[in-house]
Specification:
The chain is α/β, with parallel strands linked by helices. It has 13 helices and 13 strands. It has one domain: Aldolase class I (TIM Barrel). Strand 1 and strand 2 form a beta hairpin. The two termini are 31 Å apart. GO terms for molecular function: FMN binding; oxidoreductase activity. It comes from Candidatus Methanoperedens nitratireducens.
């Protein structure tokens, strides 16, 4: 099997990707406690860029202090974060990849002990995993956070990000608004659950112009009463109409963590069918993710028109030169599915990888 599809360049608006491999936003908890870039982050992203990945989405980056998902998450809610992020994006670009930024508000899927603020969400319903009851956002609070996303996107662009991703997956705040599982509102943000997200896209677009916007969504939440593909195909269409240039397909929420970070025994490319369903609904590039462990399989996803790009995380964490080694038919240091990179599931402070001790 060849690699002609996965190594084909792709133009999105004003950027040109050298290949179709994406390193998705990986919350390694390597930032400082107040959200600044560290040498460890520069090293990790620099090596993955040098290793041949086409698009690197750095993140996740919190747009509001009350939306920080963990203790050492990157933040982008103040102009003081621009200069260190400029260094990060410059390292990525210098080493051959296109730099991007993922923006997030964690909503109810964090803890006030981490944020220092009361949790907020579309409805005052606790996440069944985090178990802390949030406050239901009023319209003033909604507008504040929408403005935070727009301001953060402009900061990311000024710092050198060439694509902005809005995190609407996994049950975080935007995803929480999208889903009947977590949004029980009776106002316009409940009767039209896409409205919160489409207004953010429009606000971001007004700030960053032609810089491409990717919208990450859980195409199926795999929880009772949650979003399924028939819902998210319609949502994806709405997002594109609002200005999205890319749809990044994920799955799950905190209550279905096995779909957020599937193990290899769940099957190769476990969510490729979801990506194909979204691709059938929209006319913009689609990113497929989850259990894509080799470039031959990634190539087949693209050549079979299931997606336009493939997000490969853990394999590039285990071996930052995964892409170049695959092209050159060199031995790859394989991800063993040990899950130590998912530090939060085992009570660790940050990600690690026994296959990549220099991480």
């Amino acid at each position: 099997m060849g690699l002609s599809s996965v190594y084909k360049p792709l133009d999105i608006n004003n950027i040109s990707l050298p290949n179709r491999v994406v390193f998705p936003a990986f919350q390694a908890n390597f930032a400082t406690s107040d959200g600044f870039v560290t040498e460890r982050l520069l090293r990790m992203y620099g090596k993955i860029a040098e290793g041949g990945c086409g698009l690197i989405i750095a993140g996740c980056m919190a747009v509001s202090d009350d939306g920080v998902p963990n203790t050492n998450t990157l933040r982008i809610n103040h102009d003081k974060h621009i200069a260190p992020l400029k260094e990060l994006f410059a390292v990525i670009k210098k080493n051959g990849a296109v730099p991007a930024a993922q923006l997030i508000h964690a909503g109810r899927q964090t803890l006030s002990v981490m944020t220092g603020h009361q949790l907020v969400a579309p409805s005052a319903i606790p996440c069944p995993v985090m178990k802390e009851t949030p406050v239901e956002l009023d319209e003033q609070g909604i507008k504040r956070i929408q403005d935070d996303f727009a301001d953060a996107a402009l900061r990311a662009k000024r710092a050198g990000a060439e694509l902005i991703e809005l995190h609407g997956a996994f049950g975080y705040l935007i995803g929480g608004f999208l889903s009947p599982y977590s949004n029980k509102r009776t106002d316009k943000y409940g009767t039209d659950r896409s409205l919160f997200f489409t207004q953010i896209i429009e606000a971001v677009k007004s700030k960053i112009g032609d810089t491409p916007i990717s919208c990450r969504i859980s195409a199926d939440e795999f929880v009772d009463g949650g979003l399924v593909l028939n819902d998210t195909k319609k949502i994806a269409t709405r997002l594109v109409d609002a200005g999205a240039d890319v749809i990044s397909v994920a799955a799950g929420t905190y209550a279905s963590m096995n779909h957020m970070s599937p193990t290899i025994n769940m099957g190769e490319g476990i969510h490729a069918n979801l990506a194909r369903g979204i691709k059938d609904a929209v006319d913009v590039p689609v990113i497929c993710s989850d259990n894509i462990r080799n470039l031959e399989f990634a190539d087949s996803i693209i050549s079979e028109n299931k997606a336009d790009l493939v997000a490969i995380c853990r394999s590039q964490v285990a071996d930052p030169f995964f892409v170049k080694k695959s092209l050159n038919k060199q031995q790859i240091t394989e991800c063993t599915d040990c899950m130590t990179c998912l530090y939060f599931l085992r009570g660790a402070k940050a990600a690690s990888c026994p296959q990549n001790p220099q991480l």
